[in-house]
Amino acid sequence: MASSLFKWLLIPVLATVLTSARPPAPHPFHVSVLEINHNGTDKTLEISCKIFTDDFEKVLAKNYKTKIDLINPSNKTTMDSLVKKYILSHTSLKADGKPVVFHYLGFENEKEAAFAYFEVENISSVSKLEITTNLMHDLFEDQVNIIHATVGGNRKSNKLDYPATQTVFNF
Prior knowledge:
The protein has 171 residues and is of the alpha+beta class. It has one domain (29-170). It contains 3 helices and 10 strands; from the N terminus they run αββααββββββββ. The strands form 2 sheets. The chain has a 6-stranded mixed beta sheet. Strands 4-3-7-10 form a 4-stranded antiparallel beta sheet. β3 and β4 form a beta hairpin. The longest helix has 20 residues, at 2-21. The model is unreliable at 1-24 (pLDDT under 50).
């Protein structure tokens, strides 16, 4: 009898242990944040792109058919190349009607997010920014891309819900 009782008591304990050993559930939303800041002193646009690391790894693996590890990359140069290639092929920017050239600075991870950094040189002033991005659209149909732009201390923001890809800020 004691062994039967022990079996019945063991089932809830094992269920608790097994479910707590599982990895956390995926986050319920898919979002990226593109931040653009005009630095008047340096005459640059400073750009950062924040994407959930697990989602970013999935889209890079899907697009480039290779093993991706942004947290502990065995080859940082290869990961840098893929991060740069993906973001530049899915994001473009015009300043005052002229396309700009992004210079890739690198990427890093902070908790659950990957941050990629870019810079655009020789932008002494800007009154209009036109942004086109379809980041993560090739993986998620519920993707939201949030864009913030700051020029002369004036910050403007917009949210692009899939399938929207473009926004314009006038300063």
